Amino acid sequence: MSRIATTLSALKAAGRKALIPYITAGDPHPTLTVDLMHALVAGGADVIELGVPFSDPMADGPVIQRAAERALVHKVRMVDVLTLVQAFRATNTSTPVVLMGYANPIERLGLPSFARQAKAAGVDGVLVVDYPPEEAAPFSQAMKAEGLDPIFLLAPTSSDERIRQVAQLASGYVYYVSLRGVTGAGHLDVAAVAEVFPRLRAHLSLPIGVGFGIRDAASAQAVAKVADAVVIGSALVQLVERAGPDNAALVLRDFLAGIRKALDGQET
Asked: Are strands 48-51 and 18-24 parallel, antiparallel or unpaired?
């Protein structure tokens, strides 16, 4: 089993829900990223999604767009992100790390080369926003060949056919986008999320994480009643932006600890 599968399986056995935070690598500065990752773990993260900065983040709203811009000012590239993961692994060998980003930086390296380098750095899974499942068989095969989990997005507009395609290609977990639109946009409708879950479960045996629109303990707790994992991105990136370099790690840790407490408190 992969590190992701092992982690999520253990949480399920314990009756707990996974907490998956997202930050952008290199934001607000590359020298702080590893410290921020450790702060997330200290706050209760079960899996970390680490964003790869890209100049045209089409699925992201202004908060994460600004984070990518701040990282790109420091010329953070895919190879730099892999180096940061390797540095994190020097003192943490248990928390799964998922790279989340866009196809272009991966295509520049080539799928087999990227997969080998990612595995060597200590990456566990890869989510590529602009790899639709209809065209992603080579990506899935390349990742699985190196023992990495290819993770895919599903959305309220996903057809049964697309859900079935993702079920064939994905491993680790599936990321369900709770809202139509970009990251950080809209209002979370937990009832709508709950309504679609029977259709997702009919085709998927993998754990399902829900993200987009989760901004506080209450929304995280509500989503955790139906999902296997709660993914929080824009709210954390915004905290980093507001806190500044000196305080970002402490602010992230304390905020996430509140989410973790809420998730554990709702268990029965």
From this structure: parallel
